[in-house]
Amino acid sequence: MKKLMIISVIALLLVLSACGSKASNSTEKTAKAEGSDFKLVNEGSLTFSMTGIYPPLNFKKDGKLTGFDVEIGTEIAKRIGLKANPVTNPWETIIQGLKANKYDAIIGSMTATPERDKQVDFTNPYYLSGAQIFVGEDSDIASKEDLKGKTIGVIQASTWKDMAEKLSDNVKGYPTDVNALQDLALGRLDAVITDKIVGVSAKNEKGLKIKAVGDLLNEDRVSVAVKEGNKQLVDKINKAIQLMRDDGTYDKISKKWFNENILEKK
User: Fold this and answer.
1) Domain range holding 80?
2) Strand order in the sheet with 64-66
3) Is residue 243 part of a domain?
4) Beta strand segments in 51-94, E
5) What's the predicted TM-score (pTM) here?
């Protein structure tokens, strides 16, 4: 009788072991299937592209890619459970490279536009930019309504110039944003209208005594682009960005490069 019971117990254990093995194999297959839905260029890595010539957002230092975009992309990859693999591609063919499976995503300061959205899928924005009013540190100008009759500096033949001319009849053209912002810091202008990130970067890198005021005159939602139809990867990236915001990681990275959170509206 005892011998029969021992044989029965052993048989039961073998059945349970086989079931456990099947469940384990099934779980592994499911995990692999979910991972394969990312359709990664390199298994186990998130390969993301940028030009590498747009400091402080993305550029090469000592032969290695660095900058805000690189750190954001690296953190996104980490939270998805992948190794970060930043690469470069010329801007004029960067979308074509994504469509040709050269990389999994573009994390290179690309603004989500309706035209681009026809070719790729965009995540939620990972920073906001657009036309921003900059004034001297001690200026009492607080919004676009205060610019009437003021001298505004802009890049010649730019969209900023068209905006400025609607706000003041005294607009001065410059060959570069930096030239205009330097004159602003010296008190030769009342205001400058330029891209928010350009102005913030110039302020930090060159120590210009200027400040951003008012809301963005237009808003650029800078987002991660992935190949059209890869919804699972879009969802995973969106979740990673939100978690970075929630736990303060995003704020830390942004302030490292810009001294402010560039995803927050002023």
Assistant:
1) 45-128+222-258
2) 53-54, 58-61, 64-66
3) yes
4) 53-54, 58-61, 64-66, 83-88
5) 0.79
